[in-house]
Amino acid sequence: MRALITGGAGFIGSHLAERLLDRGNEVHVLDDLSTGSIENLERIKRHPSLHYYIDTVTNRHLTAELVDLCDVIYHLAAAVGVRLIVDSPVRTIETNIQGTEVVLSLAAKKGKRVLITSTSEVYGKREHTPFREDDDLVMGPPDKGRWSYACSKAIDEFLAIAYWKEKRVPTLIVRLFNTVGPRQTSQYGMVMPTLISQALEGQDLTVFGDGSQSRCFLHVDDAVTALIELAEHPEAVGEVYNVGSDEEVTILALAERIVRMTGSESRIVKVPYEEAYREGFEDMMRRLPAISKVGDLIGWRPTMSLDDILTDMIEHERRRASERTGVYAPLAAAGSWGQRKRG
């Protein structure tokens, strides 16, 4: 199999590229590095079966050449992170919709299979949980920039299904729920790496609102497994699948667990939404997915618990810090805090 990954230098895309290469696939990565990083490809960038291109997916000439070369397209290129979405709604909408339209139109000419990554954000202000793939989507008003991302990704989904129904392009959609893991950055407001970095650096852990909002965190390795198996399954075409964990935790409880697992003496500070973002910011209070549909098709379930995920991410951040400073602090028992010289 020859695969094209748009956004392949991003957090999820780079892990997907590694897994596909490990399976013996040829992989083409296209990324403009607006939110991705070439460092994410450091382990594999000299792999003989990896080809990477620093450009935007809206470069139709280049993207057309890459579509021709590949059997399957994983379309991950998108605006990411609440901070970017709130600050740059125009960029968010244009990046998501225009990029997806280019990929689908080019795939239609060659009949190539396309997996579109979507997001739990499309469920919007829906309150009834767990979220199911055939539930109604409840969006906020257009003057709230927060919802620009959700709406643009919902349009991506409509486009993908329309290309399947009208033009018989074999498309499928994966709605990812709070995927986390090594190499995810806190730069764009991702909550788990932000809290871990704050704890390890002895800073206050910032919890927005009252901390009662809850999320379900999925390790990127589990997400990648689902993406590959769905992309290769013939019966997945034309469908939407939730891919996430069903282990729910409030953000306040998450912060408390991180403090305990790192042995940090940091405080947890609650920050009003209007201070963190803009006045009138609206959040989703729960994101709990129903995952029976993907499980029924490919037998998939998450393999890593929240504690497993936190252990992995904390150790990763400590290793990164040790590379910068030469000091490594191993995962501490609750209530302890210490550092030792590496080696």
Molecular structure report:
By secondary structure, the chain is an alpha/beta fold. The chain has a domain at 2-188 and 217-245: Rossmann fold (3-Layer(aba) Sandwich), CATH 3.40.50. Helices cover 40% and strands 17% of the residues. The chain is built from 11 helices and 15 strands. The protein has a 7-stranded parallel beta sheet, sandwiched between helices. The protein has a two-stranded parallel sheet with strand order 7-10. Helix 5 links the parallel strand 5 and strand 6 (171-176). The relative contact order is 0.12.
Structure summarized in a few sentences:
The chain is of the alpha/beta class and 343 residues long. The protein is built from eleven helices and 15 strands.
Topology:
Elements: E1 2-6, H1 11-22, E2 26-31, E3 50-54, H2 60-69, E4 72-75, H3 82-87, H4 89-110, E5 113-119, H5 146-167, E6 171-176, E7 179-180, H6 191-200, E8 205-208, E9 214-216, E10 218-219, H7 220-232, E11 240-243, E12 248-250, H8 251-262, E13 268-271, H9 273-276, H10 292-298, H11 306-325, E14 327-328, E15 340-341
Parallel strand pairs: 1-2, 1-4, 2-3, 4-5, 5-6, 6-11, 7-10, 8-13
Antiparallel strand pairs: 9-12, 14-15
Helix pairs in contact: 1-7, 2-4, 4-5, 6-8, 6-11
